[in-house]
Specification:
Blueprint lengths: L24 H4 L2 E6 L1 H4 E2 L3 E2 L1 H16 L3 E6 L2 H9 L8 H24 L5 E6 L7 H16 L3 E6 L13 H11 L4 E6 L18 E2 L23 H13 L4 E5 L3 H5 L6 E3 L8 H8 L3 E7 L1 H8 L10 E6 L6 E5 L5 E6 L15 H8 L13 E3 L1
Parallel strand pairs: 1-4, 1-7, 4-6, 5-6, 7-9, 8-10, 11-13
Antiparallel strand pairs: 2-3, 9-10, 11-12, 13-14, 14-15
Helix pairs in contact: 3-5, 4-5, 7-8, 7-10
Length: 389
């Protein structure tokens, strides 16, 4: 049985009606998602930086008390657990990462509870896995819980549930998680914080210029984007922040990339960081999941006619247009649809397993229904379960 996220609207959120092409949106926003990276909060040597965490909490608490609904997506659990466990660097194996996260998450939440509490703001812990955005019941419950917490004036602190996450089903970094959470709660904007104040057109140490605004992919052509920083406690770097910002902007949510030190200025709408303007309409959550999060299990090779039908006419994929099947997948899994030269055209949820499809290739649904029986006269991938990439 296929599991997929439901499309849920946050009817209680007050969305901004003006075009989201100006960073002043942040000053007027009613609901935002703020993501902070491990490198901004922790270090291998010292664990959690009290000074950095308190400064961030102070800035967000002020906005919360002024009526802004804030969800904080916070990395740092694994990094916070390194020092107590006597680990010299971020572990690579999943089991040790899970152990460090188990120790560090409690420490991180204790500090946030204290720091926000000094301003009379209550925080809560929300741990998510990718599975929580793939399964309908989990997705719906995550939305309801977050929405209710915001209605109660609470600041939810969201992190990936590293203790139970697996290599197969992970967000991979909290930047992408924050973009999906922003979409889930229909936030007015996404703010991605790190130890770098803005996106630059090259290494800042070599005189590169700040990029104040990104209106589309063409603005980033030829730009060299940095990897994870020297602290060695994060997984993303500027690359994943840019990807998350584009992901949000493409789904109708403007995004800001800047440093943690600039958070107050950013939330006041000042000219700091790099602003990603909206570059697309808000999409159903299922399409966001398919495009950015779904774990692809196989490939369907399309003939030229099927490529045109799927890509240009936005139709469902029929068995007659498939020339080859690659991978090992079951009905309900995510697959890529590719042209004969390997170019990826789309992703979608397949209605048949890899074992069932070979006998169906090149045949019409009418013929399949007559020869193989009911159930074989459906599309291979329905247009409602398909997203172009």
């Amino acid at each position: 049985m296929r599991s997929e996220p439901a499309d849920v609207s946050a009817s209680s959120a007050v969305l901004i009606e003006e075009p989201a092409d100006d960073r002043s949106v942040l000053a007027r926003a009613r609901r935002i998602v703020v993501k902070v990276g491990s490198s901004s909060l922790t270090s291998i040597k010292g664990g959690i930086s009290e000074e950095a965490l308190i400064a961030l909490s102070d800035a967000l608490a002020v906005k919360s008390n002024a009526g802004m609904e804030i969800i904080l997506v916070s990395s740092g659990a694994i990094a916070a657990g390194l020092a107590p466990l006597g680990l010299a660097k971020r572990p690579r194996d999943l089991a040790t990462q899970q152990a460090a996260a188990s120790v560090g998450q409690g420490l991180l939440m204790a500090r946030y509870t204290q720091a926000f509490g000094a301003h009379g703001v209550t925080v809560s812990q929300v741990l998510l896995t990718a599975d929580d955005l793939m399964r309908r019941s989990h997705h719906t419950n995550a939305f309801r819980a977050l929405n209710r917490l915001l209605n109660l004036g609470v600041v939810p602190v969201v992190n990936e549930n590293d203790t139970v996450a697996t290599h197969k089903i992970r967000f991979g970094d909290n930047d992408r998680l924050s973009a999906l959470v922003a979409h889930l709660v229909r936030a007015d904007a996404l703010v991605l914080l790190s130890d770098v104040d803005s996106l630059y057109d090259g290494p800042p140490s070599k005189g590169a210029k700040r990029i104040p605004r990104v209106d589309g992919p063409e603005d980033l052509e030829g730009v060299s984007i940095g990897a994870p920083g020297k602290a060695g406690v994060g997984t993303g770097g500027m690359q994943t922040k840019v990807e998350a910002a584009i992901m949000a902007a493409d789904s109708g949510i403007p995004a800001m990339v800047t440093s943690t030190a600039n958070v107050s200025a950013a939330l006041a709408g000042e000219d700091v960081g790099t602003w990603f303007t909206v570059n697309g309409a808000r999409k159903p959550v299922r399409m966001m999941w398919l495009a950015h999060l779904a774990h692809v299990q196989g490939r369907l090779v399309l003939d030229d006619g099927a490529v045109r039908a799927v890509r240009d006419r936005h139709t469902s994929l029929l068995p007659a247009g498939i020339s080859a099947v690659e991978g090992n997948f079951e009905a309900g899994d995510a697959v890529e649809m590719v042209a004969a030269d390997g170019t990826v055209i789309a992703r979608g949820l397949v209605n048949y397993s890899a074992a069932e499809l070979p006998q169906m290739l090149g045949r019409s649904t009418v013929e399949l229904g007559e020869s193989l029986g009911r159930g074989f006269d459906r599309e291979v991938v329905h247009v409602d379960d398909l997203v172009l990439v």
